[in-house]
Amino acid sequence: MPNKAQDPLSSVVALLKPKPSISKMVEAGGPWRVERHDLSSPFYCAVVEGGCHLEITGRDPVELVAGDFVLIPDLQSFAMYGEAAPMPRAAHLPIETGPGRFRLGPSNAPVEVRVLVGHCRFEAPGKELLLSLLPEMIHVRGEERLMALVPVIHDETRSDRLARTMILERLLEVLFIEALRSNSGATLLPGLLRGLSDPQLAGALRQIHADMTGSLSIADLARNVGMSRSGFFERFRKEVGKAPMEYAATWRMAVAKQLLLDGGLTNTEIALQIGYGSASAFGLAFMRHEGMSPGAFARSHKETGFQSIGAQS
User: Fold this and answer.
1) For the segment 225-280, what is each residue's pLDDT rounded down to a tens digit?
2) CA 132 to CA 259: how far, in whole Å?
3) Which pTM was predicted?
4) Residues 219, 229: contact at Cβ < 8 Å?
């Protein structure tokens, strides 16, 4: 369960618990294009040298240059290609040229771009709820801290050092938080980050994340941040993309899922920890969100061999 001292951003990332998967250096030159489909995984890349284009399904292509960093928390499919147009149907998987190093394009063409690419995974049972709070894509330019983190993750991924998995998990958490807090302001789509960029809404969001044991109301949240009830409700819904109580329920259900899989607590104890007065009230709320009872949810995940996000990968 997230620590009460954590702010909303770090508590979401902590509950998602990114786990290491793949990190590679991709070098390309000449006409080249690579496509991947049906990935359903967090994706990030850092352009070390040169430039290329990144095309995400449903979005306009993005031109990437050296110093650019991209994070997509829930990538489904993408295409990446260079300036020179490849031959028709020329999309290929990279050819491995060394440990953690891949090549795209004609082997005799000079290298025009180097990109560090990484995939990871989220083991949180409530990841769909949590991902709904985050931007679909983050693209930042010239953030030296982000650009410095990616090579460290790449190096650690390829190593066989002691505590490698733990180090990678912490580095990925830092990477996600750095990327998420690098984006703020009115240019963001409605969501958690846009809400946190508003000082008054940020106070309400911190209260929702930090105090789950007590009852919350729109009136209390509005009063605590010095706003009228109606003004607070409309601004929260506009900036965060959910009504205040809908957001609170989303967060509480994500925490409840983890508590159910961690085991050791009764439904009554979980209900009290996340602000429901009784096991029956919690059960009804859980059924509305998940379409099954808390017990059925826990059993279904145990039957499929789901690992708690606290477990080592």
Assistant:
1) 999 999 999 999 999 999 999 999 999 999 999 999 998 899 999 999 999 989 99
2) 20
3) 0.84
4) yes
Amino acid making up residue 136: E
Percent of the chain with pLDDT over 90: 65
pLDDT, residue 310, reads 36
Q: What is the DSSP string of 184-233?
A: -STTSPSSHHHHHTSHHHHHHHHHHHH--SS---HHHHHHHTT--HHHHH
Run of H or E residues at 43: strand 41-49
CA–CA dist 282, 279 (Å, integer): 5
Tokens of 128: 């769909």
For 162, the 3-state DSSP assignment is coil
How would you classify residue 185: left for phi > 0, otherwise alpha for psi between -120 and 50, otherwise beta?
left
Query: Sign of dihedral through CA atoms 53, 55, 61, 62?
Result: negative
CA distance 281 to 286: 9
Spell out a b/e string for 93-128, using b for 16 or more CB atoms within 10 Å of the CB, else e.
ebeeeeeebbbbbeeebeebbbbbbbbbbbbbbbbe
